[in-house]
Specification:
Blueprint lengths: L3 H4 L23 H19 L10 H14 L1 H33 L1 H14 L8 H8 L3 H25 L3 H9 L4 H37 L6 H10 L3 H29 L5
Helix pairs in contact: 3-11, 4-5, 4-7, 4-9, 4-10, 6-7, 7-9, 8-9, 9-10, 9-11, 10-11
């Protein structure tokens, strides 16, 4: 028999705080900008004190002045607009085709058996190595750049979409079948919403790859574009201009990540 003293509620007992929401991250928008400011301040301090030589790293203040000069001269938009156009057209082509094929591979066994090995064979090929081939096929103008970006975003989008569709909880699908939902209703109401988080996560990787391939394509056969601007600055060993181009690419990547985050919060608000 247990001791009655053990069964009696103890005066020293305390309620344990509910921690079920510990895996729900809270937005802390101020932390990111603070980290950037600290890094830039350290770089400025290091270059001004001589701890970092200006031959290896320019002063952030000089880079900012060069950026303002680029903006005032109008060259900023002459380089930026062609790059954004190439990035948008190539990415839309590759991502839309990748999502469509990824969904088909995830849903149909025959398509998965036939096309998944082909995607697996293409995926590890460095897409930059195919740029000379695309120039032969599509010419040195915009067609080769669109094709390179499209292929570079296509394969990771297929893989992430297929994985997201394949990882949808099967119990939810069986529940839909038990309620008599049609195949199309199950896909539209269960599979696609369940796969959407994985698809959007894959977009971050695909668009980052698109920016890398954009720069590579513009360095080979483009008069205007961020890649051409960086190549010209590097050939002249103009570090300020070089870091301006790199900073523009970084800002572009952060902006794309922010936009995807906004889309996730709007489309995936049912998770909260």
């Amino acid at each position: 028999m247990p001791d009655q003293n053990e069964m009696a509620p103890s005066k020293n007992r305390q309620e344990v705080e509910f921690r079920g929401g510990g895996f729900s991250p809270k937005p802390m928008a101020i932390i990111g900008p603070v980290v950037f400011v600290v890094i830039i301040a350290l770089m400025e301090w290091g270059t001004r004190t001589g701890w970092i030589t200006n031959l290896t790293l320019p002063r952030p203040s000089d880079v900012f002045k060069t950026f303002i000069e680029l903006y005032q001269s109008g060259l900023l938009f002459e380089h930026l607009l062609p790059s954004l156009t190439r990035l948008a057209v190539g990415s839309v082509m590759g991502i839309s085709a990748g999502i469509g094929l990824g969904v088909l591979i995830g849903l149909f066994t025959l398509i998965r058996a036939g096309l998944l090995p082909v995607v697996a064979a293409i995926f590890p090929i460095p897409k930059i190595a195919l740029l000379p081939l695309f120039i032969i096929w599509f010419g040195i103008d915009e067609g080769s750049k669109y094709a390179l970006i499209a292929l570079g975003t296509f394969t990771p989008t297929v893989v992430s979409t297929y994985g997201a569709v394949d990882n949808v909880d099967r119990s939810l699908i069986r529940m839909g079948q038990s309620f008599g939902l049609s195949w199309f209703s199950i896909v539209r109401k269960i599979v696609l919403p369940g796969a959407l988080p994985g698809i959007l996560s894959g977009l971050r990787i695909s668009l980052a790859i698109a920016i890398i391939l954009l720069v590579a394509a513009e360095m080979l056969g483009a008069s205007y574009g961020i890649g051409a601007y960086i190549l010209e600055a590097g050939s002249l060993y103009d570090l300020e201009r070089l870091f301006v181009g790199v900073s523009i690419l970084s800002i572009l990547g952060v902006t794309i990540s922010w936009l995807i985050g906004r889309i996730e919060r709007r489309l995936l608000n049912w998770r909260s």
